[in-house]
Each structure stands twice: as C-alpha cells, then as structure tokens.
C-alpha cells in the first residue's frame, strides 16, 4: 500500500523550493512510505494496563533540597570592593 506518492513528494519539494531528480523523488517517496509503515506498527502495540508516562526513564530530581544557610554580612561582602559608599558597591556610571 502506497502512503506517500511521488506527486506528494514533488508538491512538498516545490513548497520548500527544492529540486530533485525523478530518481531522488522515487527514493524519498519510498523512504517516507517505509517510515510511515514503521510508525504504524506502534498502533499494534498493546498498551492496555500501561500507565501514561511523561518520560521513558525514571527521572528523579538530583538536586539537593533547599535549605537556609547564613550568608555574608554586608561588611564581608564589601571588604574587597574597590570602591564603596554608604554600605553599597560603587561603580562607574554606565548611563550618560
């Protein structure tokens, strides 16, 4: 059973502004037909009693749990700052 015709391949090639020889068109039609035939095999798979999943692998969060920790004090954060004013980093103006 032919699912993809050479005319369909020509039409899509035309839309994509691609040029193929007759031999290439015949080859692509055959290959696309084989791909669709293979995909149709999936319809034969018995999926009764199979729970839907979002991923084929058992994906788990590998990140650690969030936990509160103390952070730098303002003085510690500013101790290596080249310039500071009123407890804040002082940087050159980037706006004119």
Overview of this protein structure:
- This protein is mainly alpha-helical.
- The protein has three helices and two strands.
- It has a two-stranded antiparallel ribbon with strand order 1-2.
- Helix 1 packs across helix 2.
- The radius of gyration is 31 Å and the shape is elongated.
Briefly summarize what is shown.
Strand 1 and strand 2 form a beta hairpin.
The tally of helices reads 3
- Along the chain, the helix and strand elements come as HHHEE
What ranges have pLDDT less than 50 throughout 5 or more consecutive residues? none
Share of helix, binned:
25-40%
Structural class: mainly alpha
Mean pLDDT, to the nearest integer, reads: 91
* Main beta sheet: 2 strands, antiparallel
| Span between termini | 71 Å
Note the overall shape: elongated
The overall strand count is 2
Portion of residues in beta strands equals: under 5%
- Rg of Cα set: 31 Å
List the strand order in the largest sheet. 1-2
The oligomeric state is single chain
Write the layout of secondary structure elements.
Blueprint lengths: L5 H10 L6 H20 L32 H5 L5 E2 L2 E2 L7
Antiparallel strand pairs: 1-2
Overview features:
single chain, 2 strands, two-stranded antiparallel sheet, 96 residues, 4% strand, elongated, mainly alpha
